[in-house]
UniProtKB/TrEMBL annotation:
Key words of the record: Membrane, Transmembrane, Transmembrane helix
Residue ranges with Basic and acidic residues bias: 63-73
Signal peptide start and end residues: none
InterPro entries the UniProt entry points to: DUF4396
Domain DUF4396: 85-227
Protein's UniProt name: Membrane protein
Residue ranges of the TM segments: 6-24, 36-53, 124-146, 167-188, 200-222
Domain of life, per lineage: Bacteria
Organism expressing this protein natively: Kushneria pakistanensis
Disordered as annotated region, ranges: 63-82
Keyword Repressor in record: no
Keyword Metal-binding: no
Amino acid sequence: MLTIWSWVFLLLGAATCALIAVDVRRRPQHMAIMNVTWPITGLYIPVLGWWVYQKMGRAASADESHQHGDHEHHGSHHHHGDKPQWQGVFVSATHCGGGCTLGDIIAAPLATALGVTLFGSHMAGHFLLAFVAAYVFGILFQYLPIREMGEGSPRRALVNAIKADTLSLIAFQAGMVLWMMIATPLFLGGRMEATTPEFWFMMQIAMLVGLLTSWPANWLLVNRGIKHAM
């Protein structure tokens, strides 16, 4: 039964990702990195991710922008600068989650294929490799929009990216690790093998848990002015 549910949610996640990807091609995001982030968000928030994208991230199409004008706003999905702070913080969390998720998707098969261990533990080895990959992509996802906005030199942009994303990334990964430590013995027979649909279903849930645990960190960073709400 778990296998069936795993395939159902993984396919729904893939469909949500594809649907958002098609839509962002027609409605490019103001920040280019969000054209990647929103489809990734759909991977771990099946179906509901489409509603979240429409509510908090969907940009106006070229035709709509021309029809309504640059200074006229009709509906929340046409203009996001005036969204409530909780929504801006949530989108910032998805931005962090995009880099983390991409890193985890790349690291998990590598950890399985290479048999990475830490202190003799396959699970700990997986978590270490996943954290390193997630950190690299997370910082990259933060660095690119900072450079896109022209805020300082490449070095300054990198420093600001590290300041803005480290805490939220750690919070995201902590949520993922917590869930996988629970799910691995309960549902995966004690082994984290990135070759089964059950593993990826548990990772899908872990990414959602990570999004939730990173929300308070993003709220703190935004309130302190270290990170911008999106």
